[in-house]
Amino acid sequence: MDYLRRTWAEIDLDALTRNFMEMKKRLKPGCQTMAVVKADAYGHGDGYVSRTLQQAGADWFAVSNINEAVSLRQQDVTRPILILGYTPPEQVKLLGSMSISQTIYSTEYAHALSKAAAACGVHIDCHIKIDTGMSRIGFYAQQQLEAQAAEEIAQVCALPGLDCTGIFTHFAVADSYHGDDPAFTRRQFDCFMQTVALLAERNITFRLRHCCNSAATLAYPEMYLDMVRLGDVLYGLNPSSECAGMAQLKPVMSLYTTVTMVKTLTDGVDISYGRKYTTPHNGLRIASIAIGYADGYRRNFSNKGHVLLHGQPAPIVGTICMDQLMIDVTGIPQTKSGDVVTLLGCDGEQQITLDDFAAINQTINYEECCLIGRRVPRVYLQGGQEIAAIDYVIARL
Ligand SMILES: *Cc1c(COP(=O)(O)O)cnc(C)c1O
Fold first, then answer.
1. Cα(228)–Cα(210) distance, rounded to whole angstroms?
2. pTM
3. Segments of 120-217 assigned E as strands
């Protein structure tokens, strides 16, 4: 496979399929799956990921905006696509011509989209979003306001140019099982079901009612309804540490770079910007490797993280630079330039996960995989073979 072997991410499409099947097997027959592939499939690359999931049987795809939806259509995704966020009404023609479904989250937005749709004679498939606990976009139904939400939604469903075939909500704490968080999730579900029931009383029904994200799909089978929206788990990630072990998941992404130079230093030598590390003794072997914060390997790892090579951990020393960083390989004497370094994934018995990244950076694995830079080629593995590589910098396919 022809790609720049400087720094690259490997995407294991077999693991992706396995994770999908692992989740799919717990659904009741007839319950559909929506693969959430926003943000370039959580940094894994939207094209190969979506085509693989489409082949595995994903019924729907979800993205955050219309450019992401168009990208899927351009890469042979033929299944329905839902935009979870805002689409400027002037894009309505594109929604129609590409059969892209749009989330409707307020009366104001519904009117704007309806007007635009009517003006160019298109019908847009829409899913209504109810706010049951996130307090972001959605018809506000919290605090016993289900009836008011249902009233607003009923009027929206009658607008020309909009075909409201789906209705959904999003959970705030489906990945937390302590304190009153489970009760909060159940209240969100009840609020959603109550609003849907009030609409049914007016003979307004929806083919697709969906509320479960990955975490809820792991923990709340009674809430599956007509479809579940799977994101994090598809990539082999646990939505939170509390979800760990609830499904057999395998990380999909690994990250590698290359040793570019090895040198032996005397004691008292400063390493990298800011002189934040000084060699403590003679004979320290320091390797420079070809990854930095511009590749999404965060500067916060300075003097903190470690990498793997020759099956052993090597600590990061000094400040992470934009394009390089230094590691202490004193204990790995065979290290030489050209060696492959594992930043994420397995090397022998050792493994580094996105959860390890997240722990150091005090964030969640979601953010870590989204941050892997566009400068890092994505290399796709299937059946143990490299089947393709995508380089965003020079758009080589
Ligand atoms: C991102 C997103 C999801 C997927 O969440 P995961 O925790 O990754 O499963 C589902 N629904 C909505 C509305 C989202 O924005």
1. 6
2. 0.97
3. 124-131, 139-140, 162-169, 208-212
